[in-house]
Amino acid sequence: MEFTLLIVALPLLLFFVLGLGGSRMQPRVAGIIGTLGMGTAAALSYAAAIRYFFAEGKVEGVFREIIPYSVEWLRFTDKLHIDLGILLDPISVMMLVVITTVSLMVHLYSLGYMRGERGFQRYYALLSLFSFSMLGLVVATNIFQMYIFWELVGVSSYSLIGFYYAKPSAVSASKKAFIVTRFADLGFLIGILVLSYYTGTFDFAALNGDKAQLVVSHTAGASFMGISIASWAMALIFMGGAGKSAMFPLHIWLPDAMEGPTPVSALIHAATMVVAGVFLVARLFPVYYFAAPDVLTMIGYVGAFTALFAAVIAITQTDIKRVLAFSTISQIAYMMVALGVSGYGDHEGLGYMASMFHLFTHAFFKALLFLGAGSVIHAVHSNEMGDMGNLRKYMPITHITFLIACLSIAGIPPFSGFFSKDEILAASLHHDKLLFFVLWVVAGLTAFYMFRLYFNIFWGKAKTYDGHHRPHESPLVMSLPLMLLALLSCGAGFTAFSQLVSSNGAPFHTHIEWEVAALGVAVALLGIALATKLYMRGGELPTLIAAAMGRFYRAALRKFYMDELWLFVTRKVIFRFISTPIARFDRRVIDGSMDGVGWVATRLAAAVKPFQNGKVQWYAFVFVLGAAAVAIWALCL
Amino acid sequence: MIPMVSYLALSTLLFFVGIYGFIARKNMLAMLISIELILNAVELNFSVFNRYLYPEQMEGMFFSLFGIAVSAAETAVAIAIIINVYRNAQNIDIRHVDKLKG
Amino acid sequence: MELGTSIVFYVLAAVIVASAIFAVTAKRIMRAATCLLFVLVGTAGLYLLLNYHFLAAVQLSVYAGGVLILFIFAILLTNPKGDPAEPADRQKVVMGIVAALCGLAVTAVIVLKHFALYPIHPSAVGEQEINMQAIGAALMGTGKQQYLLPFELLSVLLLACIIGGILIARKGKGQVGEAEE
What we know:
The structure holds 3 protein chains of 3 kinds. Chain B is mainly α. Chain B contains 3 helices and no strands. Chain C folds into 2 domains: about 5-130, Up-down Bundle (Four Helix Bundle (Hemerythrin (Met), subunit A)), CATH 1.20.120; about 130-175. Chain C starts with a helix and ends with a helix. In chain C, about 25% of the residues are buried. Chains B and C meet through helix 1, helix 2 and helix 3 of B and helix 1, helix 2, helix 3, helix 4 and helix 5 of C.
């Protein structure tokens, strides 16, 4: 399985080739090189997945971890060292497939979408860098390697969000994304340090599986503010995951990140980067489960709240990419809840499996939604719902594929979202009734806002377009990825996922729980019906309802004032009461003492300087008097 | 006969007259003249000590001899420098030569 | 004889001190140089009194003959507008007087304190003139209390001075051009 190294190395190579040599190539050539390279990586990933799942991975009926490649990089003590390597286990192989597939689709799609943009080569170089970082993240053998690639992901997403660097809103959005996630990563780093300090290792292999008990024994007895050290460490690590995965209250960067090019949104903010947090929790799941079950519960509740919160906001948004952004937050939160309610071991670990399953299916249909939205934006040159409508006649392929994605995310059988969502609902029902109820409501809301989006774009009022700006179907290079992803969205749900991915590596059988499924489908259908009634023909009804909701509607429209709250917290509280005193301390005391040393030296020099005034006679005068003084002193002795 | 103290008193006077001249004069050549006075006083002292204290030896005299030669060399170089200064500044006032300072 | 020697000494001493004082106070630099000549000649006379005839000859030839000529050339070169009197700088005069008096006082104390140590007369040996052959042997010998090495060093020093003096005082190329214009 050594060739898996190539999967990671290839995008890095592409990054250097395109980044350094891109300006000397035709944009088209650069794009094709990038796409072909990513296609190779994707093919390698499929080969790796097939060999892992069906040939080499399973030993005595349990999927084990394979480390085909590992080098020691930094050694601190006998036990504590940082390696760089590749770890293959069910979830990392699954992620390899997801990332390379979506990345390949985005590469292909961008050939059409980004055609003629300035910096086309730079765009492809950055896409490669991002793919490299994300692949390195999922195959990390230890938590520190993961952290390195985690930050690389942050940097490359920063530069992709700010791709239109001439646009102030894009620049501020990229800065916001970077700062918010970086702030969260501070917690991640502290968590890593605490965890490794107590367990003496960074390796996942030494932390996970049956050895998770080790963490418990290593951290036993130590506690801080009444909460065990293990819980602190895992909660801090979750903070990093919450930042990347846009969990409340660190979700504020994701909607703004839509300033980036739409394919980038599809890649980063739908399928890959935002699920890094979910992946992190899944990666360390045994540790969470055995050492910090309280944190796991917290993750469940944070996820549930985020899911509901984001879904409510999504209903009110009019920018189609923002709707998708909030739906992403909501769906990621779904995965978090599934992890939070999961147990460990065969059927106990249903939530874990469901979470990974939803990650898998969501990646495809959410990427499809974003790419479809990109196709629409490409056609009408606007992000606003008000500028669209009745597009189904002009863009048939986009229309059909978008509809498939909407049905999938809404959880209508037999599309893929139904299967994974059903597993999540089932898992939460067995664990916590309240969480189940919240998720159930969110499922209805999801169906509603997705079909609100769908009807507003493709149906609605019979809008006429000027002859010149007549929308048209996208070229094949853009519609082909849509069709492929639509196919995946239809088919991905039939994967026997529990046979491949489970919390302890042992395959188990699941079956659809028909009561849960019926409840879920019913609420989804209700949402769709409501949306159909309200939006299919257009009309005044939605406006009237919004007016009736009054204050609540306005709050949701303004995203419940979270941005304002953060601004208040940072500007009025942190800047004023923490940063300003620190800055003052720095300037007055630390700089002051340094300046003081310099000042004293300067004054001393200024005082001494006149002695050397360049007047030789003055020197002679002083010299003679000095000699006389020495002579007198000698005489007196 | 002349007591040795007389010689010493004379050379002391000569020496400090030179010191005064070196400090008080503005003209660089006048300062150089003062230096010659100082050197003369020193050489005289060498000779006198030799003659009165160790008459059978010649060290003091040779010191004077070499002193005379060195002072001649020093004068030659100093005058070359003074002429160079004059060429640049059109005068040889020591007050203009004070750039070498902190 | 003894009286004559004393008279000669005191006359010489008076000339030296008076000339020296005039040399450092003279307004005109040319007069100062002339007074320096008197001081140098007077010192040569003192060497004769001390029976250092060779030293006296060197003093006359090198100082009076060489150095003083250099001075006069330099004075003439640096005073194209004649020899203007320079006004005294009061502060410097005060400084000079203070320094000179301080040093003089200290030295006088030292000299007079050890007055008793000094012989009144030179010893009998010291009355004789030094043999020129002895001087030559000491200058050219390499043994103890012989001075070939300093002599040669001095010749190198003089050579360096010749070269250095030429190099410093020589006009630069640009200045030659200016002079020709």
